[in-house]
Specification:
Tetracycline Repressor, domain 2
Length: about 240
């Protein structure tokens, strides 16, 4: 994916080159997991020297953190419409909660790049980056959690603001964990085929995520509405 210019001189050209790097990384993640995406191969596919890619992003992980935020932004831009179509405003709170959990799981399933990056966030992507890049990522991620909490609360107004934030933060953490478990290795798939008793460990991403979100949301709704903002999430639900 080479640019029509040799050297990015204007801010517009620098933005175009950054976008090309991110788009290429996203395309690679459609073919391979995060662990297999190397900076050398990314540079080759973009059509730049590795040193030139590092002019725009300080490391492979910095590229992927930026891409994670971009993927989350795109998903959130669609989500309000998805939930408006899926959640019956006149239904009981329990029914609305189940509808919302199902819609969230289904919407995430069609964003595999977001799920793949979320699964690697804490263990991989938040390493090999500077404090400046880490802080910039977290600030954007906090804003995304706030957006998700507001969208959720617009459909489940029985949730208070703190619990909506808890649910939003937990949704992304659980998404990454379930995605990892729902992508078994070839050896695991062979073991499942050889022994049907092991097949219970083969998770369906959408169904498993839906069930977990349902349970977490039901638990939050069962809590007293005037509880103090402590424990998981607190006043900054996306910090961890």
């Amino acid at each position: 994916m080479t640019s029509t210019f040799q050297r990015a001189r204007s801010e517009e050209q620098r933005s175009e080159r950054r976008r090309a790097i991110l788009d290429t990384a996203a395309a690679m993640l459609a073919e391979m997991p995060v662990a297999q995406l190397s900076l050398n191969e990314l540079s080759r596919r973009v059509g730049l020297a590795k040193s030139n890619v590092l002019r725009y992003f300080e490391s492979r992980e910095a590229v992927l953190l930026d891409l994670l935020n971009s993927a989350a932004r795109e998903w959130l831009a669609e989500l309000d419409g998805v939930l408006a179509a899926a959640v019956d405003a006149g239904a009981s709170v329990d029914a609305r909660a189940d509808q919302l959990a199902a819609a969230l799981a289904e919407s995430l399933a069609v964003h595999p790049v977001l799920c793949e990056l979320a699964s690697a966030q804490a263990a991989v992507l938040e390493h090999n980056v500077s404090a400046e890049v880490a802080a910039q990522y977290k600030r954007t991620a906090m804003a995304h959690v706030g957006t998700l909490a507001a969208v959720v609360r617009s459909h489940i107004h029985e949730l208070n603001e703190v619990d909506a934030g808890r649910f939003a933060a937990a949704s992304m953490i659980v998404t990454g964990a379930v995605w990892t478990s729902a992508q078994p290795s070839d050896a695991m798939l062979e073991a499942y085929r050889a022994d049907p008793a092991l097949a219970a460990f083969q998770l369906d991403f959408t169904d498993t995520l839906r069930q977990l979100l349902e349970v977490f949301l039901a638990g939050l709704l069962a809590r007293p509405s005037n509880h103090l903002a402590d424990g998981f999430g607190g006043s900054t639900p996306c910090s961890r």
